[in-house]
Each structure stands twice: as C-alpha cells, then as structure tokens.
Structure to design on (538 residues):
C-alpha cells in the first residue's frame, strides 16, 4: 500500500506499473519514516549530525562544506519554486558533466519534491526529446556550455516549456545562479512520502527505445545503507573519485549518494579518462575509486609514476572484471578490487565481492537485503555451476514508467536482469554473458538497434546490423556490418563518413569503431537479420 503522496503533479504516481506487476520488495532492515525527503537527509541531516564543516564536494576549482552545500541547494530550491514555478511531482531534466553544480541542482530538485531526470551531456536533441516526451518533462536545467542540443530539443517538444542554464564552472554566473544568489539559505524540504518517486533513470535496454525506471526517496538511501555501508564500510575519512557520469545511477550512487550519506568527500571531475585515474587518486589522496576495468588497466601501466597508497578500495563495475586485470591488480597493489553488478532498474550494485572475500572471475554474493538465484526459461532454479538467467529481489526493484515492458523484467516477483550467470555450490555468482543485444563497451551500455537506426538515416546505407565484438582494451567494441545502396562503393573515406554521421546523430561514444562492408546480411526465411552469425564469424 502506497503512502499518501506529496506530489501535486500526480504524473509519476499515476504512471507506476500496477502493483501486482512489481517485484517482491524485501524491506527488512531498511526502515524509514513515512515522510522522507532524500535530499534533506543528505544535506540538513548531515549538518545536524555534526558534519557541517566537513568538506562535501570538491570540483570546479573549489570545495564546499556540507553547510555550504545545504545553503546552496536551499537557494536553488527557492529559485526553482519562486521564479520557475516548479511544483512537487514535476519532472525536471538536468544536463551536465560531473561537477558540484550538477549535484546541487539534483539535490534542489529532490528537495522541492520534484522528480529528477539526470541525462548524459553527450546526448543529442533527438535522444533528449524521447526522454522529454515519455516523461512529460516541463522544466530543464542545463550547464550553459551544453545548451545547444537542449534548445533544439525544446523546439521539437510539446512538453518542455522552461529551459534554464546554470554555470558548472567556478564562476557560477548563469541565469539559475543569478536567480538563486539573492535567495534565503533556508528552504523547508517538501515532506515527500518515502515511496514518492524521486528519480526517473532512463535505460535503453536491448531495443534502443528508452525506458524510464522509477525510484523512490527510500531507494536513494537504501543503496547507501546497504551496499555502501556493508561492502564499502564508508567512513567520514573516505574520499571518493571515479569516472562514471552522475547521469548514470552507478555514478550518482558512487559519487554523490554514498559519500554524502556518511559525511565523506566526493571529488567531481568533468573529465576522468582512464590514463588519468592514477594521477587523480594521488592528487586527491582518494580512498575509494569507482570506474571500469579498462581504467584500472591504465592505472597498472603507470604505477611506477604514481602513488596510489591512499586507495582503500577499487570498485569495478559497468562490465565484468577480467581475471587477468584482477590478478595483476592484486599482485601489483595488494589492494582489494571489488567486482560487482547492478542495473538501472535496481538502481545500484546488488551483487558484489567483499573487502575480505574477493576472487577473480567471480562477481561475489548478494549485498545484504538482496537475494539472487539462477533460473531457466520457466523460472526454475538450475543446478549449481549451470548457466541460466540471473533473478534478483531486494529493497529496490524494477518499476518501469507506465509499465513499459514490465512483464519482461519482473517475473514471479523476481527481477530478471538480462544477465546470464552461474552459481557455485558455495553461493558465489559467476558472470557468463548478457542475454540481449546490449553492447557494453568501456562501461557504457549501447543498444545495437539505436546505432543501426543512426546508420540507416545516412543516404548511402541500404541495410546494416550492429553487434558487439571482443576487444582487449574496451571489453567490447561496436561493430557495424553495412550494405551500401546502389551507386556507393566501400572505401576508407565512406567508413569515416558513416562513423562521423553516427557521432553527429547520437551520442558520440555509440559510434561503430569497426565497420565491415558486406554485399548482404544473413537473414531468416522471414527476413530477420541473424546477428548471431555475424558474431560467430569473428
């Protein structure tokens, strides 16, 4: 039974899937008051606990204490409500790279009881408009350096009425900043229900069509009170760094929610390429790092130049951690590197290795509060060491906006994550593969059909199919098999033109690094492209 909502705009509550379509939620050990505002807990709550003068955020050439962060978010909250007219339950899109202003905007949106929709800075207007239309987003906050695509999105949207810029640099001189500057530094948080929707997180899935996952205020805290408390054992002395975008739930948890929940410090960097991770750890004396396996390989290659002795835990996620990287890391650093798996649907990591219990080619055991099993297509538990579908349940779970494909993800009360795993006799889980056509490259999830659609919009492309192929450095890369239309010939210049076209049409990281020209594509009798044959040929 849902508690009374504080939302005056009831879209989010109205768009939840039917309750009998939800996964079973295991809430023992995750008890919160009926009225709960996650932003207030992470700001005001931490000041009340005595962390007011502790450093909360570092980035954009300055640092802010928990008290300063709380005051900042209150001023932004006033601007959102008093000047922009945002109401509880309105969806507010946020577009920015990783910086303190992004976190402050997200906290302010959550504080006023609105629903945050965090988005990647590389998304193009054609992708953004899908988010806006599906979630009926009325307001958007955007780093002033990234306005062009959002303005183009607004021109195509029937819902987006307000686009306001903020300054993600140290200057803080943009429209939203100026509106907030004269506002009071106190703003009573909206008394949202613990099961009011606080966040819509989009995931492409295997179809390329974005689906929005719906997360409550209590969900935002439960991932910290579970994984971060148990697995990471976070203390106020910890310093978090990492590369995942805050727009991903992996990044939002690891670089905002987790440190703020425990009085720690988060270092937010707009650019954290793999070769720089070791240097960043050394500079900021980081103790916990979140990034993909490829970045840890880069750290290993430059260990002779950098001092990473401050590091307490390396968290690896986004793609499975290859055993050779794990073994080399342990051999050269002696520090734990913890492989884990999470999904946007469940918000963050729910299976993980532990500081005192980790091994190569193993994802570990369920985080406290979660249960996992490996099942066959009928939902029956398979024998030990047998590969099947991963099923999970716990304090968080999949709720797709408007129940979009809910039955595919939630079956018999369990979340079917789309991953193939095996479980050994001792209960340790071992990753095998993805069940769908999602390509995971350098920690980014890319849906093949979305790349195909971008290629097919080029005048020279008649047919195409996109698959993931193994790559030592990136885990997988996107490979496009292309049949050109009559009058066009394969060439290096044509390949470059097609790659540039994809970069200009959708987020640049989704472009095919490998492009194979073909006379035809393998198909079934009904005309369906047989992508498995393309994968098998490599």
């Amino acid at each position: 039974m849902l508690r009374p909502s504080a939302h005056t705009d009831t879209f989010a509550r109205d768009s939840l899937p039917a309750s009998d379509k939800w996964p079973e939620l295991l809430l023992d050990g995750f008890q919160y008051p009926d009225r709960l505002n996650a932003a207030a807990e992470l700001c005001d709550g931490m000041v009340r606990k005595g962390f007011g003068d502790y450093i909360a955020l570092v980035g954009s050439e300055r640092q802010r204490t928990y008290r300063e962060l709380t005051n900042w978010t209150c001023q932004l909250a006033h601007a959102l409500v008093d000047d922009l007219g945002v109401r509880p339950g309105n969806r507010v899109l946020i577009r920015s790279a990783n910086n303190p202003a992004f976190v402050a905007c997200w906290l302010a949106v959550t504080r006023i009881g609105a629903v945050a929709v965090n988005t990647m800075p590389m998304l193009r207007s054609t992708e953004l408009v899908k988010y806006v239309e599906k979630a009926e987003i009325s307001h958007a906050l955007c780093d002033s350096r990234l306005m062009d695509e959002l303005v183009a999105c607004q021109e195509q949207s029937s819902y987006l009425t307000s686009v306001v810029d903020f300054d993600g640099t140290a200057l803080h001189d943009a429209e939203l900043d100026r509106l907030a500057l004269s506002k009071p530094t106190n703003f009573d948080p909206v008394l949202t229900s613990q099961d009011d929707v606080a966040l819509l997180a989009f995931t492409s899935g295997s179809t390329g069509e974005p689906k929005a996952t719906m997360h409550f205020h209590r969900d935002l805290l439960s991932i910290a009170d579970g994984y971060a408390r148990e697995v990471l054992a976070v203390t106020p002395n910890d310093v978090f760094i990492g590369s995942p975008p805050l727009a991903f739930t992996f990044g939002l948890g690891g670089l905002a929610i987790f440190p703020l929940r425990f009085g720690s410090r988060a270092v937010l960097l707009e650019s954290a390429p793999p070769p720089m991770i070791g240097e960043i750890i050394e500079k900021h004396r980081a103790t916990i790092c979140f990034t993909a396996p490829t970045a840890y390989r880069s750290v290993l290659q430059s260990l002779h130049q950098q001092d990473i002795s401050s590091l307490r835990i390396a968290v690896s996620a986004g793609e499975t951690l290859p055993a050779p990287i794990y073994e080399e890391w342990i051999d050269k650093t002696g520090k734990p590197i913890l492989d884990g798996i999470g999904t946007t649907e469940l918000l963050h990591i729910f299976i993980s290795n532990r500081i005192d219990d980790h091994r190569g080619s193993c994802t570990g055991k369920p985080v406290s509060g979660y249960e996992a099993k490996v099942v066959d297509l009928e939902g029956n538990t398979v024998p030990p060491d047998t590969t099947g579908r991963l099923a999970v349940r716990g304090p968080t779970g999949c709720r797709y906006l408007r129940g979009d494909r809910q039955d595919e993800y939630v079956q018999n009360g369990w979340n079917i994550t789309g991953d193939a795993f095996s479980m050994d006799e001792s209960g340790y889980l071992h990753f095998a593969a993805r069940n769908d056509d999602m390509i995971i490259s350098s920690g980014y999830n890319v849906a093949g059909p979305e790349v195909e659609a971008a290629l097919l919009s080029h005048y020279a492309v008649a047919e195409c199919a996109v698959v993931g192929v193994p790559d030592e450095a990136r885990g997988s890369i996107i490979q496009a098999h292309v049949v050109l239309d009559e009058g066009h010939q394969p060439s290096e210049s044509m390949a470059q033109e097609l790659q540039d076209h994809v970069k200009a049409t959708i987020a640049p990281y989704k472009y095919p690094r490998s492009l194979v020209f073909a006379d035809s594509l393998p198909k079934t009798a009904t005309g369906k492209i047989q992508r498995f044959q393309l994968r098998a040929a490599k």
